[in-house]
């Protein structure tokens, strides 16, 4: 089974015409021998201006395609092969042709297959899973870890819905609100997933040696704020100041024009090019008197930390690395890419690269052209971790 998945995308202020334009592409591909004329699982991503019509759009695409099972969500921006739609009514659809019984749509009203469950073909029923989640869920990181534990490999991919008008609908065979939903894939579905980061490290890694809540007390047994200021090359005579305004004025504004972040990873994590195993979180404050650094996360003693900043060039290089690794792996195995799902951070895309569709162009240039849909998320999910400022690319082979 190597034929391409059918897909389409469009923008139009009227939801029905928008859907019709995308469906026309899908229907035309059914007559093209390189695309699969069959399909049993649909992916549907909508921008926020179409959120209120999600149920009607789902009913239309189901009726027109004959595909019963659909998953998807709303994004502040969505994407497809070569394009990025932001701040306009748009949608993207993709119809996968997968082995019978090789997937299970789940939501708050339909459970994922229990661990150890086999399909009729003998495959593990929940080998990996696509997940869409409500960004307003309390303790979302723990929920992601709990869901990961229900998957044989522990591998999740997906992200949090995004948009300016919550609550945001998800699609899991019907329109659902809140919670988590998606589709579990059996072990006989060929997939490859990679994570790409978009940050540039400011200095070397540090060991978190004391912390409480979201406050980091010491790094490498030295005051956390002193370590940060050293990494930023702040002059020694200013670095010791207890004057918060003086310290803020001394920070290198040009170097930090895209923000200051902390990348976190377990003690044994290896940071290669792009440090994709690191969870990137905002630095949200400093305490000059107690020499503390506050971040948007609750770190643990023993974790590694690297201060970093968002950087378009670093993001570009790491996306090329990710795409190249995937291409080499897939080609060496003799496979072809049938379709893909890309979940990127709302702070990436045009917001980071300065032009729409830049990530799509890089993927096409380094992986070739293939059916691709996805959305820009409020947080990206890979394995059992909620990331930020990343891109998660999953390919079906």
Q: Mind describing the biggest β-sheet?
A: 6 strands, mixed
Structural class: alpha+beta
Number of helices: 9
The largest beta-sheet arranges its strands as 1-6-2-3-10-11
State the low-pLDDT regions, or none. Answer: none
Shape: elongated
Report helical residue fraction: 10-25%
pLDDT average, as an integer?
Answer: 94
Tally of discrete structural domains: 2
Number of strands: 26
Distance between the termini: 9 Å
- Compute the CA-based radius of gyration: 22 Å
**Beta-strand level of the residues, as a percent range?**
25-35%
Could you explain the architecture of this structure?
The chain is an alpha+beta fold and about 400 residues long. The protein folds into 2 domains: about 5-195 and about 315-395, no CATH class; about 200-310, no CATH class. It has helices at about 15-30, 55-65, 140-150, 225-230, 235-240, 245-250, 310-330, 350-355, 360-365; strands spanning about 5-10, 40-45, 70-75, 75-80, 85, 90-95, 105, 130-135, 155-160, 170, 175, 180-185, 190-195, 200, 205-210, 215-220, 220-225, 260-265, 280-285, 290-295, 305-310, 340-345, 370-375, 380, 385, 390-395. Strands 1-6-2-3-10-11 form a 6-stranded mixed β-sheet. α1 packs parallel to α2 (about 55-65) and α7 runs parallel beside α9.
């Amino acid at each position: 089974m190597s034929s391409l998945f059918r897909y389409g995308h469009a923008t139009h202020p009227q939801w029905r015409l928008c859907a019709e334009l995308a469906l026309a592409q899908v229907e035309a591909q059914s007559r093209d021998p390189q695309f699969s004329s069959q399909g049993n699982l649909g992916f549907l991503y909508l921008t926020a201006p179409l959120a209120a019509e999600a149920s009607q759009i789902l009913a239309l695409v189901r009726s027109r395609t004959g595909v019963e099972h659909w998953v998807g969500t709303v994004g502040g921006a969505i994407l497809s092969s070569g394009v990025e739609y932001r701040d306009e009514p748009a949608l993207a659809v993709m119809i996968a042709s997968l082995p019978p019984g090789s997937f299970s749509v789940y939501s708050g009203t339909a459970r994922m297959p229990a661990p150890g469950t086999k399909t009729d073909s003998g495959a593990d029923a929940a080998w990996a899973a696509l997940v869409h989640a409500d960004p307003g869920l309390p303790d979302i990181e723990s929920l992601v870890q709990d869901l990961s534990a229900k998957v044989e490999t522990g591998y999740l991919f997906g992200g949090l819905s995004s948009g300016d008008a919550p609550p945001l609908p998800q699609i899991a065979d019907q329109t659902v609100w809140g919670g988590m939903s998606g589709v579990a894939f059996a072990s006989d579905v060929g997939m490859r997933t990679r994570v790409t980061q978009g940050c540039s490290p400011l200095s070397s890694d540090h060991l978190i040696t004391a912390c409480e809540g979201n406050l980091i007390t010491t790094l490498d047994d030295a005051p956390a704020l002193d370590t940060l200021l050293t990494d930023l090359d702040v002059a020694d005579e200013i670095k010791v100041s207890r004057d918060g305004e003086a310290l803020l004025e001394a920070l290198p504004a040009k170097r930090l024009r895209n923000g200051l972040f902390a990348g976190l990873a377990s003690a044994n994590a290896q940071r290669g090019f792009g440090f994709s195993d690191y969870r990137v979180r905002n630095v949200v404050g400093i305490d000059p008197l107690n020499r503390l650094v506050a971040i948007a996360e609750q770190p643990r003693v023993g974790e590694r930390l690297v201060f970093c900043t968002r950087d378009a060039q670093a993001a570009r290089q790491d996306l090329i690395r990710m795409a190249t690794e995937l291409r080499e792996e897939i080609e060496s195995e003799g496979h072809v890419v049938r379709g893909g799902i890309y979940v990127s951070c709302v702070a990436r895309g045009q917001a980071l690269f300065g032009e729409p569709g830049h990530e799509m162009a890089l993927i096409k240039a380094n992986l070739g052209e293939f059916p691709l849909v996805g959305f820009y998320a409020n947080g990206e999910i890979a394995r059992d971790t909620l990331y930020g400022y990343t891109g998660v690319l999953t390919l079906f082979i």
